[in-house]
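So, could you explain this one?
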Amino acid sequence: MHAAARRLLLSAAVALLLPASPVRAGGADCACRFEVATGGSGVPLRRTTRTAVDGACTFDVRLRVAPGAGAACDGARSTMRGLGRATTVDPWAMSWERVTVRARTYVRRTVLRARLRDAAGRRTRARLALRCAPPLAGCEDVMAEPVYCVLGGRAQHRVASLDTGVVCRDDGPATAAAGRAMSLALWHGDVYACSGGSPFGGFVATPLGAERRRRVAGPCAATGTDATSLLVLPRPGFDARPAQATARRSVRDTPRASLRQIRAYDDPADVPDGPYRVVADLDTIPAGSPCGALLFDTVTGADGLVYATGCRPRWIGGCDPQPIVCVFDAGTGAALPSLTLQEFDGGVRGLSALDGGRLVVLTDDLTALPAIGYGGDDTSFGVHDTLHVFDVTDGARLDSQALTTFMAQGLACVSR
């Protein structure tokens, strides 16, 4: 072979191995996203669920240029569909658009789609699914209370008032599958649970007010929220989406390091494989700490802190509940000094953090506790389930509320 031919073949081979030049050198491509008004600010989402009020769910949405796109979107034009018409909108300055989804006896969905074209003619798309779940019949007054809590442990979720102890929907049958879910998360209208009534022991979501569960990921040990993000402690196989897992086929495993990290998701569509943030690293628990020997099954968060608790395994079998709560800095994931719950040594069957430095504990423990603010000899007994409120700074018990439920498991409280 001639030298010139050899050089030509070598040049072609090198060209195949080298990465192609980017379409846009020195900058990001133009991109857009939908935002939903939540808690007074715009939250980027691809799916959200709400429970109907007065027969409908309302959402305020807008389309925005994605952060970091910058000059790549100069001169871009966008079209939005899903409201019965195609609408041209300005992705830089679109005002909030009110979208109303009428309730049905099932979860009804409206999908918004947007297509954006930049000055060079390149296109990008965005999608948002707005889901409206039927209302919880008979729970309107309870859910109008300053703080209400969703309880697990039955075929349907129950709702309790923290102030009055009134419980609605407390007539469904108990179910062993749902009872296995020690922690719950109420997030964007869905109730998330680890292994509670799910196929193959996976991570499931159920719209509040509906009964149909959907599997969103593999197994997990604990879940909760910090009011804005979904918190999850994975188990092996968590990162497998439903299409990747069947009863007869092994699933893609979750990295071992991730099994010691509590994740925070900002968008329901990101579960399970990201993007997510690590808000608690269990490997940062100091040697000798009582948190080091716990099997965590409950997690919650608020005000930049993550709280987790569980039980201590016995060498002869079983697991003893512990009256301590492990605390982590959500910004760094590092462990902080643990919190001991005063006047309490029972089993934690649910944990939920509220604003104002409050931690709500669900228990069925029968320990007699003195009534808060009462100087007599009478005591209150946890004959049924009880909600205790503790101060997160020193673990002092602030209040207690007896419920009419029995053997509830899983707690998710909402402060209005």
Summary: Helices lie at 3-17, 140-143, 176-179. The two ends are 80 Å apart (CA to CA).
